[in-house]
Amino acid sequence: MQWKTISLLVCLYGVIKEFRPATPFLTPFLVSDAKNLSIETVYSDIYPFWTYSYLICLIPILALTDLLRYKPLVIVEAIGLCLTWALLVWAQGVQLMQLMQIVFGLASAAEIAFSSYLFAVVDVKQYRRVTSWTKTSVLIGKLFAFALAQFLVSWLDAPYLLLNQITFIATIIALFVALTLPTVPKSRPDVVQNVEEAQPKTTYDRKKRKSASSTYLSTMRGRFLIYKENALVLKWSLSYALISCAMYQIYNYIQPLWIEIDSVSKAENGLIEFINTALGAVISFGVQFVKLDGSSRLGDFFLFSSASILGVVTIVLSLTSSLWIAYGMYVMAVFIYHALSPISSTIIASQLEKSAYGFVFGANSLFALIIQTVITFTVVDKNYFELKMQQQFLIYASIFFLTSLIPMICSILKPVQLIHECPTESAILEDL
After folding, report:
1. Distance between CA 169 and CA 16 in Å, rounded?
2. DSSP secondary-structure letter at 292?
3. Which positions ≥6 away from 405 have C-beta within 8 Å?
4. Which H or E run includes 242?
5. For residues 392 and 380, is the Cβ–Cβ distance under 8 A?
6. What is the pLDDT of residues 397-415, one digit of tens each?
7. Where would you tag: which of 36, 170, 222, 267 has the fewest CB atoms within 10 A of its CB?
8. Per-residue DSSP letters for 157-211?
9. How far apart are CA 252 and CA 93, in angstroms?
10. Cβ–Cβ < 8 Å for 313, 396
11. Which residues of the chain, if any, have pLDDT below 70?
């Protein structure tokens, strides 16, 4: 199957799996008569389970994504989405809603297979293009979903349950599409390939079973060294992980913030998410024509300015008492993130071997989730500080500002690293 055909199929899956009209109105649905939960219960007792589940599930998925060649975990994601909305449609009570968030955490963790799938089947020259396509496909699915959601709620006064029923049907279709994806052909890591080539076939056959696990562990350790050996991967991975961590929290808790600011006015969540997604789709598609050198001063400035603006926007979100200002700041934050996401992914992927995509992107997500879990456990969970929503957003703003310092720190450390790598005078004399 040609790479363009595979790309089209993957993008189709991306569109359908993200067609979730229930998403913009998830919190209003949970606090409505259909589920009869309080807003405090939703964001203190239910939503934190997604973060915990995501972190726990990501650890084995991180190790298995490249090993299983992506497709099985894409199917796991689709099944997880089906179960999530089955619980939302038919289940009742706090415990089952917590289970819903746990299953959704599994689906979210398995998404790294979808993000990495095309990198494993296309040439490196096509990375910018396929990154743009997959990001755009996801946003197109959201675009149609959010437009439909706002139309049904505002014009037809449809119940929130209907939005969840439509989403459930879409996840079933996405599962069937996932099953049709071609299996990624094996592209063994260089470490394993070198072992095989260095030994006669008979010798290798005798040692194959014994060395398989140790070779795999050695390969995993070698992949961790990517961060040590490639400063560009480290800089952009760390920055993207921190920004993603804060954005995940904003995505999770923006609806409760809107309700706290104004619980009386008619919700325009679907309209705002529609605008968000339309802008995101345009910018994600346009990114394929942008060539940004991640190691250049322009790349550093882009990273610094993006993180700084996100910090300012989040502070305004935490302080405003106007719902429409909150809507506007949220749109701006998501717009910047949509620009940053594909650019970061392309820069990181361009530095990696094909066998390492799932691992590196998964490791970045894992790091983001560890920080996110600590934040959720300390500032959101009712067993600890349980800060007010506006106070939580100040924490997220501080993460953005911290991230903006990374390019400057790397610029300062780079000359120091070069000095250490230069041969000393005594070493030169010894060579002579």
Report:
1. 10
2. -
3. none
4. helix 231-261
5. yes
6. 999 999 999 988 887 776 5
7. 36
8. ---HHHHHHHHHHHHHHHHHHHHHSPPPPP---HHHHHHHHHS-HHHHHHHHHHH
9. 20
10. no
11. 1, 124, 186-224, 264-267, 288, 354-355, 357-358, 381-386, 414-432
Closest CA to 44 of 399, 388, 330: 388
Give whole-number Cα distances, 140 to 24, 146, 275, 279, in Å. Answer: 15, 10, 12, 10
What does pTM read for this prediction?
Answer: 0.73
* CATH of span 9-181+229-421: 1.20.1250.20
What letter represents residue 266's amino acid? K
How many separate helices (H) and strands (E) can be counted in the chain?
18, 0
**How far, in Å, CA of 171 to CA of 352, rounded?**
32
Can you give the length of the chain in residues?
432
Left (φ > 0), alpha (ψ -120 to 50) or beta: where does 159 sit? beta
Q: How far is CA 42 from the centre of its chain?
A: 22
Contacts 24+ apart (CB under 8 A), 326-331: 326/257, 326/258, 326/261, 327/258, 327/268, 327/272, 330/250, 330/254, 330/272, 330/276, 331/272, 331/275, 331/276, 331/279
Q: What is the rounded CA–CA span in Å between residue 206 and residue 262?
A: 70
